[in-house]
Every structure is written in C-alpha cells, then in structure tokens.
C-alpha cells in the first residue's frame, strides 16, 4: 500500500515536472514567434494595431463575450463598444490573438478598406481556411476562391448581370404579384419578412433555372427547408472549427443532408440543360423570353460540378441579402407614415395606381432609391466581412494597412485575418456632416438626407467595392424597387404590430430583423 502511494506520488511528480517543462518550452516557442512577427511587422514599416487580447485566457474571454453578444443579437453594439473604447491613436482598428500565430485585425477605417478591396487587392483573399469550411456547400465557386479560379468564376457570371438582361422585369412581376396575393386583407397581421424570404427564393431560382422553387405556394418543400437550414448549419460548423480537431466529434449529418436536398433539386435542371445540343443552346441563349442563367453557364462549361457550384453561390448571394434589406425597409417605413406618404406620392407620380413600372422609370425614382440606400446604410445586409492574406497569389507578400491622420500604418503578415466591418463603418459619426435641417442625426432613418449628401468613396460600402464588388447590385436594386412600387400601389398605410423599439439585429452572415417584421397593410382608397 505504502509502496503504491510512493510510486503514485513519483509518477505524479514526474508528470508535473514534464508538464511544466513542456509548458515552459511552449511558452518560449510562442514568445519567439511573437518576437519574430514583431520584427517582421517593423521591417514592413508598420506597427501593430491596439491589442485587446493576446493569449488563450484573454482570447477565450473575448470569444465568450462575442458568443454572448451573438446570442443576444447585440454584435453591432459589441463592436461599437470595443471601437469606442480604443485610445485616440487607434480609434478605428484593433487586433486580437489567441496565440501569437493567429492574429486578427478588425477595422472600420475607409483607407484600410480601400487598400484591402482595391489598392492592395492582390495581397488579400478569402484564403484556404474559408475555402475548407465553405466548400462542401459552395464548392469552388466565386465565393470560396481567390486568384485565377475566382477570376474565371467572375468572368463566367458577370455577363448574366448586364443591364439588358436585368431590364426585363417579367420575373419580378410574376413573383412579386404572387407574393402580394399572399398578404391578408387590410388590417390583418402578417410577418412580411417571411414572405420576402420566400419571394426572393422564388425570384432567384426563376432567374437562375427558368423555374421557381415556388416557396410562396409551398413553403414546406424539402428544398426550401434545406436552403433555409443550410446556412444555420454552416455557421454552427464554422464556429465549432475553433475547437478543431474536436469539431469532428459533432455530427455533420444535417449539414450534408441539407446539401444533398439542395443538389437533388438543382441537378436535374443542370442535366436537362447539358443534354441540349449546342446549336439549340446557342439559339436559346439569344431568346429574350426563354434564356436563363443556367443556359448561359452551359454555353461556357459542360462541367456539372462547376455549374452546380456557381448556381448555389448566386442563389445564396441573391436571396437572403435582398429579403433582409426589404424586411428592414418595411420595418422602418412602418414607423414613419410621412415617409410612406412621400414614397407613395412618387409611385403615383411616376407609375400611377395601375401602371407597370419599367426599368427606366424605377431608375428615375429618387426617393425610392434613397429609401433603399438609407436602409442599407443603417443595416448593410452583409455587416461583417473577413479576408485573409491570400496564399494563392504569386505576388504574395506581407503588407501594411495605410496610416491615417494620427494613426500609424499597421503591418499585416501572411496568414493574418483582417475583418472589415461595414456596419461599424456606417455607424462612425465623425464621417458624417453635422446634424442640420437637411441632415438628420445619422442614427435615424432619413432617406431625405440623400438629396443633399453623398458619402465619400469607401465610407459607404453595402455592396463591397473594388474587383469583388457585388455583381448583383443592379439586379438587387431593381428587384427591391419593383417590389416596393407594387406594394405601395396597392397599400397606403403600414402599421407595425409588435414592439418596434424592441427590434434587434440578428447577424448570421446576413443581418436581418431578429423579431421578424409583424405588420398590417391597409389598402389605399381607390381614385
Ligand atoms: C441587397 C442586396 C445585396 C447586397 C447588400 C449584396 C452585397 C454583397 C457584398 C457585400 C458582397 C461581397 C461579399 C464577400 O466578399 O464575401 C457581395 C458579393 C456577391 N454578390 Fe451580392 N449583394 C446583394 C444582392 C445580390 C444579388 C441579388 C446577387 C445575384 C443574384 C448577388 C450576387 C453576388 C455575388 C455572385 C457575389 C460574389 C462576388 C465576388 O466575390 O466576386 N448579390 N454582395
């Protein structure tokens, strides 16, 4: 008994000694990495940004704080609090790290964003980590790739968004009219956000495949469910990857089931299109009425996997962003009856009560455009963005984020993560003119401000900027404008049916109203 206790004590002692030694060596190794990285940053002529966490203890505290704020739909508030607590010389950028080799820089500085997205574009990309996490769902599409692969996708997709193609509004008419037919009679409550998400799914599938998913009539189809669920699963798994390799212990079954269901829906369209003889396909793509995004893709590639990846990427890009922006627009309009009146007056002036909006008419409706722009200023649909230094580029180099008045340039090393934050950028009060009769407080919804104000370049970026600017911008603006016009032709009053002030911003890749948008519409008096 005594022998066994001694032996046990000896083993424990040795274990502790070796453990302590390993920890010391590991700490020395990490400090050496940190010192080497600091030298590399200085060599670049840059400095580090203000460091808010530098080790596993403060890093874990920060991660828990982020998770807590995310669960309370208070991510925007958390960022604002953090930025506003920085010292004056580093007010708009900071960094945090778990270990010295895993540095993340967060910025809301226009000059940094300009460098990341345009001036120093080739030094930044989505990176292999992003590709690894998202590729089961989005494959090697425009969203998950950099360099040549990304460039090929971009060239493939861009022609589909030419003005001539978008100016045919037949798809919007078809799906938006159907959506309006689902709105209950005057005075009855509806969550209009739910209808917007179904409508944009139907518009985007109609545009891509020539046939809609019909989620407006059948919201519970397997495809609709899978498409609604897959992003939730994707985010869950992306968060769990923080704990890799243990993330493998968590089931991925639902994620892969969702992907399978989406593919079961999309692949038959692809196979049918690939079976069309090339001469016939060529003829089809010239037709104004029958040509689809899919037909055009098939002219350039016969690889079903390439087509599958691009279709799913555009579907994801085009659906939630537009639905969320429409939801926020009606959330704001429901609180401002005078703005609804002004918007409706413009609708009646340009389109009339029964007229059909055309592309040119929509382009000329200023208050309508300002209403959408103002919504995207307050609630950019993609509120946060992440780019890592690309390791796919030959011109790969460590780089700097440029200095700004009063703040030094920030050295960025290969493998660092840089997050730029449109939500916090748009919230920077110092970038706006003083409040006046023409310029309401920046925290308020005021489309009127746009009559006498234009944001400076890189201070307003809801659609991103530079070579990776959203190719669907014109499509989205036209779709949203069409939808608002059609709704205000019919309805003259919108009443919010919830606690308007209790609304929160749910940020899960896309920012959407966390509590839905419960409203009642009232038909306008017929003239
Ligand atoms: C209000 C609506 C929309 C907003 C605010 C928006 C915003 C954005 C933003 C911020 C990005 C950059 C994302 C990133 O780099 O990770 C982006 C990329 C993209 N968007 Fe949009 N988008 C909207 C609608 C659409 C629509 C309707 C489509 C297509 C039907 C579309 C297609 C794309 C594609 C394909 C990309 C990837 C571009 C690239 O990486 O080169 N978007 N969008």
TrEMBL record:
Pfam families: p450. InterPro entries: Cyt_P450, Cyt_P450_CS, Cyt_P450_E_CYP52_fungi, Cyt_P450_E_grp-I, Cyt_P450_sf. Its cofactor is heme. The keyword Transmembrane applies. The chain crosses the membrane at residues 15-35. The keyword Chaperone does not apply. Heme binds at residue 470. Keywords: Heme, Iron, Membrane, Metal-binding, Monooxygenase, Oxidoreductase, Transmembrane, Transmembrane helix. One of its GO terms (molecular function) is heme binding. It comes from the Eukaryota. PANTHER family: P450, PUTATIVE (EUROFUNG)-RELATED (PTHR24287). Belongs to the cytochrome P450 family. This is Cytochrome P450. It comes from Xylaria multiplex.
